[in-house]
Specification:
Blueprint: H1 3-8, H2 15-20, H3 26-33, H4 35-46, E1 57-61, E2 64-67, E3 72-73, H5 75-79, H6 81-88, E4 92-97, E5 103-107, H7 108-124, E6 132-136, H8 141-153, E7 156-159, H9 166-176, E8 180-184, E9 186-189, E10 192-195, H10 197-204, E11 213-217, E12 231-233, H11 234-237, E13 250-251, E14 255-261, E15 269-274, H12 276-288, E16 298-301, H13 308-320, E17 324-328, H14 339-347, E18 351-354, H15 356-365, E19 380-384, H16 390-400, E20 407-410, E21 444-447, E22 460-464, E23 474-475, H17 479-487, E24 494-502, E25 508-513, E26 517-520, E27 523-526, H18 527-535, E28 540-550, E29 554-563, H19 571-584, E30 593-596, H20 610-617, H21 633-643
Parallel strand pairs: 4-17, 6-7, 6-8, 7-14, 8-11, 11-12, 16-17, 16-18, 18-19, 19-20, 29-30
Antiparallel strand pairs: 1-2, 3-13, 4-5, 9-10, 14-15, 15-23, 21-22, 22-24, 24-25, 26-27, 28-29
Helix pairs in contact: 3-4, 4-12, 7-8, 9-10, 12-13, 15-16
The structure holds 5'-O-[(S)-ethoxy(hydroxy)phosphoryl]adenosine.
Catalytic activity: acetate + ATP + CoA = acetyl-CoA + AMP + diphosphate
InterPro entries: Ac_CoA_lig, ACAS_N, AMP-bd_C, AMP-bd_C_sf, AMP-binding_CS, AMP-dep_synth/lig_dom, ANL_N_sf
Domain Acetyl-coenzyme A synthetase N-terminal: 25-79
Length: 644
């Protein structure tokens, strides 16, 4: 498709939607005229500050920003107490849908009581402001309760996705120096019980972590080993704690959470977020991008709390905005492929926020499945995690949104904390496949390799020009890596790692990562991390991993390995290596295919040319291989791939 057809096919906001929209066109101008003033205004309007701030942005020591630094607030108070005090204690905060069909509702007053109990219990376990707590839980209300309890105490949480392995959990616990782990016996997925507690036991079994206590939520009732003196049941402790807890107020820059994400090296980065700026931008994007109407909306963000989307748009955004939200524990095909639509119908969901990979899966399952449900409650749809291809966008718009719901394609990252580029749904005519424009108060550019010129029509690199309130404050315990990763390529400019281009209307289209980070089903994985898991296996001598285009998951992990002498090239070995990665990192990192090859393409300086392997994995003619030390290698590789 050419630019001009892309540019002409737009969907104007429905007139009633535009008329009632929270944020109108003038916000763009105000954000551009004085971004600090703009964010100060949003912050005072949307956040309850216990002590107002006098300084907006401190950028005296770039790239280390401080926002609203002398203000004081409590993030959990903003998510709970203020709604109860305003008389909305009876509004439902969370409608939980368990996978087996059980459900549970918590009003704001009830959620406040649960969070207060958990905060009291954590205090009893010695957790204080400034400490870290690891959370390894499924998608159940206790995940959000635990996060808010930490926030209430001024302790930072480090949520580790329940699909990650014991090893991944252990390294994150050690890096963050967590004193307490909150977990569950297990959960329900795809109609089966999965277990979590054994991974915690394994993670702690080396005796090299600072963990003193483990709190265990009973979800499935399966048998678990409890270690005397270390492990306690949530229902024996938290449930009996006092439901009263007075929130203390902390500095705006008090750490709120650490969330580990994949980078270009094998070691995940602990992305640090703080309180006042983060909450400001999360709340502003709830208002501006999701057009949040707390009295009438029912919000459903389908992301797991193990990812940043689940932090900003499950745990913090909807609750700080005082909305009713849905939390679903399980998979979209349990008990059948209509599960999501049944949940939308039952809960009268108005705002659905999901990943393109899910949309593409539903497309494959067929439109007659959602057609069986009443989806007329929906008024706004969101997309996140990877570029949404125009075809999936149109299907989402037509089949799920009934042609009447604007779609906000939201570009952001773990590092940015909240939306950065997304259409304002009541203002812009949306365009399938494009995330369009930075939100008000944010300044981005698409530049060429030198960073000095705007990129041409073929695209270039996305950069962020000015600090923003919810920006990461650093990489935990690694300021040098923070500078090096994001701020060294161009001066005083944040380098996002994404390729992008602008069309003739100035709208931004994302082209995928420009580094060795893959995006599989909207989840970030690093090639280096999977490669180091592979070479840790005794059969593997060398490994190279690439992300190859995949119809459903966006990208798929494809591994090329050289095995050690004596190990044969067999499907069994390849399968064993797939399983090994699943065990080391987690099932999401399992390669779709493992090719056993005799050589890897290397430059004379020994650097693996992944670009060429990607050509093989994507079934394309192999590109320019003149810089290879041995140019015949690609033929050997293609021959062994053809055989496997
Ligand atoms: C990609 C997820 C295109 C991008 C919130 C980014 C997107 C990485 C979009 C961050 C989008 C996310 N369009 N690409 N709407 N949203 N990405 O940290 O490559 O898990 O750098 O944060 O996902 O992934 P992360």
């Amino acid at each position: 498709m050419t630019d001009s057809t892309e540019a002409t096919e737009t969907f104007a906001p429905p007139p009633e939607f535009a008329a009632a929209a929270n944020v109108k066109e003038d916000a763009y101008e105000r954000g551009a005229a004085d971004f600090e003033g703009f964010w100060a205004e949003q912050s005072r309007d949307l956040v309850d500050w216990n002590e107002d701030f006098t300084e907006v942005l401190d950028w005296s020591n770039p790239p280390f920003a401080k926002w609203f630094a002398d203000g004081k607030l409590n993030v959990a108070y903003n998510c709970l107490d203020r709604h109860v005090l305003a008389g909305n204690g009876d509004r439902v905060a969370i409608n939980f849908e368990g996978e087996p069909g059980d459900s549970r509702s918590l009003t704001y007053a009830e959620l406040l009581a649960e969070v207060s109990k958990a905060a009291n219990m954590l205090t009893e376990l010695g957790v204080e402001a400034g400490d870290r707590v690891a959370i390894y839980l499924p998608m159940i209300p206790e995940a959000v309760i635990s996060m808010l309890a930490c926030a209430r105490l001024g302790a930072a949480h480090s949520v580790v996705f329940g699909g990650f392995s014991a090893d991944a959990l252990r390294s994150r616990i050690i890096d963050a120096e967590a004193r307490v782990v909150i977990t569950a016996d297990g959960s329900y997925r795809r109609g089966k019980e999965t277990s979590l507690k054994p991974a915690v036991d394994e993670a702690l079994s080396h005796g090299d972590t600072p963990v003193e206590s483990v709190l265990v939520v009973r979800r499935t009732g399966q048998d678990v080993d409890m270690t005397e003196g270390r492990d306690q049941w949530w229902h024996d402790t938290v449930d009996n704690a006092s439901p009263e807890h007075e929130a203390e107020f902390f500095d705006a820059e008090n750490p709120l959470f650490i969330l580990y994400t994949s980078g270009t090296t094998g070691k995940p980065k602990g992305i640090l977020h703080t309180s006042g700026g983060y909450l400001t931008q999360v709340l502003y994007t709830m208002k501006a991008v999701f057009d949040a109407k707390p009295e009438t909306d029912v919000f459903w963000c389908t992301a797991d709390v193990g990812w940043v989307t689940g932090h900003s748009y499950v745990a913090y955004g909807p609750l700080a905005a005082g909305m009713t939200q849905v939390i679903y524990e399980g998979t979209p095909d349990t008990p059948d492929q209509g599960r999501w639509w049944e949940i939308v119908e039952k809960n009268k969901v108005t705002t659905l926020y999901a990943a393109p990979t899910a949309i593409r899966t539903f497309m494959k399952w067929g439109e007659d499945i959602p057609a069986k449900y009443d989806l007329t409650s929906l008024r706004l749809l969101g997309s996140v995690g990877e570029p949404i291809n125009p075809e999936a966008w149109r299907w989402y718009h037509r089949v799920i949104g009934g042609g009447r719901c604007p779609i906000v394609d939201t570009w952001w990252q773990t590092e940015t904390g909240s939306h950065m580029i997304a259409p304002l749904p009541g203002v812009l005519a949306t365009k399938p496949g494009s995330a369009q424009r930075p939100i008000p108060g944010i300044s981005v550019d698409v530049v060429d390799e030198t960073g000095e010129h705007p990129a041409g029509p073929e695209g270039g690199l996305l950069v962020i020009r000015q600090p923003w309130p919810s920006m990461l404050r650093g990489i935990w315990k690694d300021p040098e890596r923070f500078k090096e990763t994001y701020w060294s390529r161009f001066e005083d400019t944040y380098f996002a790692g994404d390729g992008a281009r602008r069309d003739e209307d100035g709208d931004i289209w994302f082209l995928g990562r420009v580094d060795d980070v893959m995006n599989v089903s909207g989840h970030r994985l690093s090639t280096a991390e999977i490669e180091s898991a592979l070479v840790a296996h005794p059969s593997v001598a060398e490994a190279a991993v690439v992300g190859a285009a995949d119809d459903t998951s966006g990208q798929a992990v494809i591994a090329f390995v050289i095995v050690v002498d004596g190990v044969e090239n067999s499907p069994e070995v390849a399968e064993e290596l797939r399983q090994h990665v699943g065990k080391e990192i987690g099932p999401i990192a399992k390669p779709k295919r493992v090719h056993i090859v005799s050589e890897l393409p290397k430059t004379r300086s020994g650097k693996i040319m992944r670009r060429l392997l990607k050509d093989v994995a994507e079934n394309r003619a192999v590109g320019d291989s003149t810089t290879l030390a041995d140019s015949s290698v690609m033929e050997l590789i293609e021959a062994s791939v053809a055989k496997s």
